[in-house]
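Friendly challenge for the regulars: who can give me the structure tokens for this chain first? No prize, just bragging rights.
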Amino acid sequence: GPPIPLYAPVEDGTKDNVFISKSYDATSHFETTTDDVRDIYRRITGKELVVEKLREGIQVAAE
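First reply, four minutes later:
Bragging rights claimed.
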């Protein structure tokens, strides 16, 4: 079939505080999705997302 279109936000969200992610694509292991999450976090907070020292089985937030 025809290729599925990919969409990206026109603005970066810093003017109106509306932060929109890009479309999902066909990459495996959510590679580009992870990059997009890191980008959105940086645009919102002005800081890089740090996910080091997280291990399986460690709860980082209260449920």
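The chain has a mean pLDDT of 83. The chain is about 25% helix and 0% strand. Your move, everyone else.
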